[in-house]
Every structure is written in C-alpha cells, then in structure tokens.
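Supplementary Methods. Inverse-folding protocol.

Structures were first reduced to a discrete structure-token string of length 216. This string, shown here, constituted the complete conditioning input.
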C-alpha cells in the first residue's frame, strides 16, 4: 500500500510538472518578440548613424576601422541599448501578462522562476564581461559579446520553456561569433541578431501558438 501511495504521489508530481511547463510556454508571446525585434532594429539604425555618419564626418575619425571609440560614443551606444532593452522588456511583459490572463494561469510559477534564474546567470555574466571590455578599451567587440552571451542565456533557459527558444539562442551565438570575426560590421550583426531574428522568431511563435486565440 505504501508503494502504491508513493507511486501515486510521483504521478501527481509528474502531472504537476507537465502542467507547470505547459503554463510556462502558454504565457510566452510571439508579439512580444516582434516588438522587441522592431525596437532593436531602430536601436541598431541609430547606432549605425551615430558611429558611421555623425562621428566619422563630424569628428573625422574612423572608429570602426581603428576600434578607437570615444567615451561619448560608448555612453551613447550603451544608452541606446538600454532604451531598447527597457522597451523590449516592457512590451514583452505586457503581451506575456495578457496571454497568462487569457489562459487563466499565474504569470510567475516555479517553472518561470527556474527559467528566469537560468536566463539571468549568463546575462549577468555577460554584462560584467562587457564592463571589463569597456575598461580595457575593447568596445569594438561589445556587439559580438552581447549576442553570444544572450544566445547562451536563451539556450540555458530553454529547458524550462519552448524548444523554439533554444533555436533562437543558437542563432544568436552563431551570429555573435561571426560578428567577433567581422568586427567592422558589428552593429549590422547586432541588428540581425536582436532585430531580424526576434521578428522571425516572434512571427513563428505567434502563428504557431497564439493566432487561434488572439484577436488583434
């Protein structure tokens, strides 16, 4: 009888785990990914203008070729990235909260908490690494570093959410490695990774999981 009870408890635990995993992916929003990608493209366009038009023609220095980033440009680029990040998080939360409410599930459950922990470990590590790069005057490699660490964060968190996230993470790492080699076009790869890939991912997610239930 004790063995049967143990088996019953294990089955309940397994069912609960499956339900938590399901609620996790039901909460994710493809629309949030589309908006994040759109904001990233605008941010990349501004960064490209700042580095290649304003700085080159106004100050007559070729920072892409030489890697000589002035502190003003670095601060402006970081502010640009921060604004994009805040907008992406805000709209991602709005659409994710809407999905969770629509399906009658909690936005934050144990699965979501594990996913966030696994997501932020590589992200925080990457953020600290980027600070070190800036400290050593290697700002030209920041675009590649952000893509690589972000990709690793998605891969690390993917076991607690949709498998689609893993493929997005792998694509970010690959694009980041290419950007690390072709440093002169780092901003372009940043736009491809955070912009175009997020729009593609968000569109796939929307039509795969949301279109039948969402009314825009």
């Amino acid at each position: 009888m004790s063995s049967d009870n143990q088996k019953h408890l294990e089955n309940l635990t397994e069912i609960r785990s499956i339900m938590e995993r399901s609620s996790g992916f039901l909460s994710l929003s493809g629309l949030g990914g589309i908006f994040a990608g759109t904001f990233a493209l605008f941010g990349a366009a501004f960064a490209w203008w700042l580095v290649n038009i304003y700085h080159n023609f106004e100050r007559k220095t070729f920072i892409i070729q030489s890697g000589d980033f002035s502190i003003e440009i670095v601060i402006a680029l970081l502010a640009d990235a921060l604004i994009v990040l805040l907008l992406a998080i805000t709209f991602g939360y709005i659409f994710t909260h809407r999905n969770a409410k629509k399906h009658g599930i909690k936005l934050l459950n144990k699965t979501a908490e594990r996913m966030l922990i696994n997501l932020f470990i590589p992200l925080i590590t990457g953020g600290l690494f980027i600070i070190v790069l800036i400290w050593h005057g290697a700002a030209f490699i920041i675009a590649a570093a952000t893509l690589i660490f972000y990709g690793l964060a998605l891969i690390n968190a993917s076991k607690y959410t949709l498998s689609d996230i893993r493929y997005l993470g792998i694509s970010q790492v690959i694009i980041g490695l290419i950007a690390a080699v072709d440093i002169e076009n780092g901003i372009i790869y940043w736009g491809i990774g955070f912009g175009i890939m997020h729009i593609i991912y968000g569109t796939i997610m929307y039509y795969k999981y949301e279109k039948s239930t969402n009314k825009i």
